[in-house]
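Narrative of activities, Objective 1.

The group set out to show that a structural description can be obtained from nothing but a protein's sequence at a throughput compatible with the screening campaign. Below is one input-output pair from the validation batch, recorded exactly as produced.
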Amino acid sequence: MIRRDVLKSLAALAVVPAAAWAEEPGLHLGDEATPFDADTVTDLARTLAAEPYAPRPMIPESWRKLSYDQYRKIWFDGRNALWENSDLPQRMDVFPPGLYYPQAVALHVVEDGTARPISFDMGVFDTAEEFPEVDINETLGYSGLRLRAELEKPGIFQEYAVFQGASYFRGIGTGEIYGLSARGLALKTGDPAGEEFPDFTAFWMETPDADSSRLVLHALLDSPSCTGAYRFEITHGNVLQMRISATLFAREDMTHVGIAPLTSMFLFDDTMRQRFSDFRPAVHDSDGLLIQNGGGEVIWRPLANPTSLQISTFADQNPRGFGLMQRKRAFSDFNDLEALYHDRPAVWITPGEDWGAGAVTLVEIPADLEIYDNIVSYWRPENPFPAGTSHQMSYTLHWGEDPVAPAADMPVKVINTAMGGRPEGGIVVAIDFAAADIVPDDLGTVEIVVRSSTGTVTPGILQKNPETKGPRLAFTFEPGDAGLVEFRAQLRLNGDPLSEVWLYRWTKT
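Output recorded for this entry:
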């Protein structure tokens, strides 16, 4: 296939005639059917990568200039969902273009080995009377999709995943609300020259099997540096699972690649409460980065909101898993009746094969408001991807309250970190660990390991927390003239790890 044939195959943005809107409710499929198999999207990505990057056309200016309040006055009518009034166990909604979404994505439905495009149709949306007049032309299309299924009650289809904007997507376990986001790929995150944001430009949705909680979605990724073919096998439940396989094709030398990137928000908690005048004890979608490295060591790195950009790297060989967690789960941890941060999911990432040498990377960006996603984590391979090469990878995202797969060798968790000044000088650090049967009643038999990169630190004391029933480690440090101190702490028993390794980067504010 040559480039113009590829682009033609993605031209699913045909506009439904206005007369059809009133006659046939629901999403409309185009008449043109094309063959589709497991290699279709990979072949498209390979072909596109051989040509110079060309961005998609912009939708009409009247859509792009919608204000936030105006955009909220148009919404999808769920009665028009794909597979509505059928016996199929899934529903798919679409999102309108405009505002933050100036380019359309192509949507297709796959059934019996053929793909048909979903045409743009204003009739699937409801609008308030104040919604302005907007132009309709061939550049229009939907900005993304939402998946729904019968999660808790028969006949009630609740959403569990959204794909919208660049290569962003989100998921939730049953009963949760949206929080952090995932991305198909991160490129040049934190680089001085600026980050590159690849786009999912087209999706192909396989018609689900009857009585199945699994849905398969294919996506084409495009950016100046590369293209990519993605396959998502999504299974909803208390822990939502997304099995992802992808092939990347490099247009250019890719020296800073982020695999399985997550994006979240962290404003403050007990480590830096004094910086914010707020009635809530904490504000965040995630509170820590959890890593199980290739050697089996489990690391907990509490998140921070620094006053300057901070990038931390955790070098590794074939990591077993990593992810951004939300371990605070009580309403009183946040005291927020609107944001409900205690109901937001954590995400754990399990590689599908050996990823080789590289580093789990954590980027912490200063933020003064909770509207900003200021936390990014991803796996950065040690070796770059040269132009003209391809790279295959697979991994699973687990979305849920506690999505880490249980294992006999998982140590006692860190459940909270608090910091503050002492009247007599120095800064006290209090680390609470969860209650567990493997913690001895006599805490005097537990070895305390506390280390710092600079400054002075006390040996630490270990006491039982009467509320959590678990141990609390407290120590004091004096940073001296240092503006940055790296800490490592752990509880050990009989020479073996009892707790996770607690790592923290303290910076002077």
